[in-house]
Write a structure and sequence with these properties.
1 helix, 28 strands, 9% helix, mainly beta, 47% strand, 4-stranded antiparallel beta sheet
Length: 336
């Protein structure tokens, strides 16, 4: 009995030692890669980068990252947060927060720094996964787990007149407005990207070239193209009219791995410092850039967990198991 107990204790000690060794290994890797790590708040679900601050969402709430320090701004009671969008009101930053309770409610709240309370309003019977803000025409779009894309007006710092613009047949994961405000796009687990005119009630254009669930969607800076990332491990670029322009499906810069394989899902997208490069985050923790003209790609960094969100200002912010801030000057130059 004592011998068995001794073996069990030795096994537990070995497990603890192994875990600590891996933690030390990853800490060394991240420091070597010029990364600054945010608070241990759990997986980062969404990021909004402003001039000097990155705001991010995790299961623990809303956080602000500035000058190498992380501050918890909000921990809502009874609401799981999934998305955030910045909606500036004069000189004041306001943040539209979305989430809810799985299978019970989809809720929206507006956070203002310095205010003690954020009131959430129920708008759906299941989670709201994402939110997009259009600063041109002051509109807000919401991505719902029940398949709906909701559209509302932003008036006086409040969300008004919310209604269903159109519907998917499955969960909507991501929504985006074109920079000129004249198009709205959504990515869904039904495998479709829908593109609509927010000003009218016309049926959306249906893009169905992906072979698996679509996780992310983004407009080009000139508002003329739509880029989407899917669980099929591919990027696809379309015109806003729905014409397929190009599929990005090759990766040959990482030895011994296949980041473009079907098991490596494309979860997050953002344009680089110009309109010719995309920065992409994947389910296997790969962060890479893609030159849109040539289709060539380069691995930027590898993270231990899926990259759910990316955003950039002076620094590049990556949302994986926690928030990472990367000095952009330390990244490899994109291959053209």
């Amino acid at each position: 009995m004592r011998f068995s107990l001794s073996l069990a204790i030795d096994r537990q000690c070995w497990i603890v030692i192994r875990k600590r060794t891996w933690c030390l290994f990853w800490s060394f890797v991240l420091v070597a890669c010029n990364l600054v790590i945010g608070a241990e708040s759990g997986p980062v679900r969404d990021i909004v980068a402003t001039k000097d601050t990155a705001y991010y969402i995790s299961p623990a709430g809303l956080f602000a990252w500035q000058g190498g320090q992380s501050e918890r701004l909000l921990t809502p009671s009874g609401v799981r947060l999934f998305g955030v969008a910045s909606a500036k009101e004069g000189r004041e930053d306001r943040f539209i927060l979305v989430g809810g309770v799985p299978g019970e409610s989809g809720q929206v709240g507006v956070f203002r720094e310095g205010r003690s309370e954020t009131v959430f309003v129920r708008l759906a019977d299941d989670l709201i996964y994402d939110v997009a803000f259009d600063p041109v025409f002051q509109r807000v779009a919401l991505a719902c787990a029940d398949g709906r894309v909701l559209l509302g007006r932003w008036e006086g710092g409040k969300l008004e007149g919310v209604s269903t613009r159109y519907e998917h047949t499955s969960v909507v994961r991501n929504v985006a407005f074109a920079p000129n405000g004249k198009r709205l796009a959504s990515a869904s687990l039904d495998g479709l990207v829908l593109v609509a005119d927010p000003e009218t009630e016309e049926e959306p254009i249906v893009i169905q070239d992906h072979s698996d669930k679509v996780e992310s969607v983004l407009f080009s800076p000139d508002s003329q193209r739509v880029v989407s990332g899917s669980r099929d491990g591919k990027l696809r670029m379309h015109s806003v009219e729905g014409r397929l322009i190009r599929t990005y499906s090759k990766w040959d810069t990482l030895e011994g791995a296949r980041p473009w394989s079907r098991s490596n899902q494309i979860l997050s997208l953002i344009y680089g410092s110009n309109d010719q490069t995309l920065i992409v985050g994947s389910s296997q923790g790969y962060l890479f850039s893609v030159a849109l003209d040539s289709g060539k790609s380069v691995l930027l960094k590898r993270f231990p967990k899926p990259i759910n969100a990316v955003d950039r200002m002076d620094s590049l912010y990556v949302g994986a198991d926690q928030l990472y801030e990367i000095d952009r000057s330390s990244l490899p130059e994109p291959i053209q």
